[in-house]
Amino acid sequence: MTVSDPIVRPASGWVLYCRPGFERDCAQEAYQRALTQGADLHIAEAQENSGYVRLSGQARPPHWGSLVFARQVLSLVAMIDPLPDRDRLTPILDALPAHPAVFSDVWLEMPDTNDGKELSAFTRRFAPLLTDALVERRRLGGRDELPRLHVFFPDKRRAWLAVADPTQSAPWPMGILRLRMPPDAPSRSALKLAEAFDMFLSAEDQQRYLHDGLRAVDLGAAPGGWTWQLLRRGLRVMAVDNGPLKGIVAEHPWVNHLRTDGFRFRPDRPVDWVVCDMVEKPSRVATLMANWLVGEHARHAMFNLKLPMKKRLEALESALNDIESIMQANGVRYRLSVKQLYHDREEVTVYLGREANPRRTRR
What we know:
By secondary structure, the chain is of the alpha/beta class.
């Protein structure tokens, strides 16, 4: 055997994709979830700025949406190291698990890093070869509800094979919901709110809760990216910020720009939405948003929690616990969803909504 000969090893555990720089938070959160499930897993890889995390052991992965920092969660089945320079197809085919017999699809993926981007040209060329080989072996082309095969390249020398249940995993390659920057939006923050709506609200919910004639308050509105996103969905907006608005939102007839303190402002009558992208401690923003819903100033809230450089997970859990304590103490039924979006940076995005039914959810 030479150094270039591939070594194919069966493997088990979870592969999680995350924002580079948040590997420790992603690994810690996933490990804590494994403990609550009674699973025997340990953190095997969580290198800083790698864009992925690996937990080793036997356990069924949780729903990807239930983890804040994970963009995708997969079941690892095999690892190839080193990956040959020439014939990469054969070891990947040799590493295929016996079950499922047929996959619904195959995705070739890499970390969302600069090094990972260098692999994208290779995966674009390689994908048709692998797809054709899987079809020829009758391993590809099953029903949409069948498991999906993922071939993840941590780097150019390694390939990991993983399997995903389409009902439990992110429906986008690399776990990234990609959106195009609208040319007339005042800032790129408009993409963040658009992604949040698609992440947290079903198509039916968006039709019910985001339509012409509804009213919203945008706290910390300047320069107007979130206000712009609300306008394009037909909402009238009170934009609260001492700073100036830019672009079309500055003179839009459906915008009322109020130069006042976002933490003190309350509308004279209830609105449908309050959104908030203010830079402040997560506990303060979380308490503010919970009090908006408890006080019936709004029915739905979408907001960012800016995380500290250290102890991010602890700060986040503390803020979310504050929300739950306030809502429960006031007998408010609610839905709480949290995710670090692709368009987030040192923050996470939260949806909080009053619920008419008796259930409380946190996802």
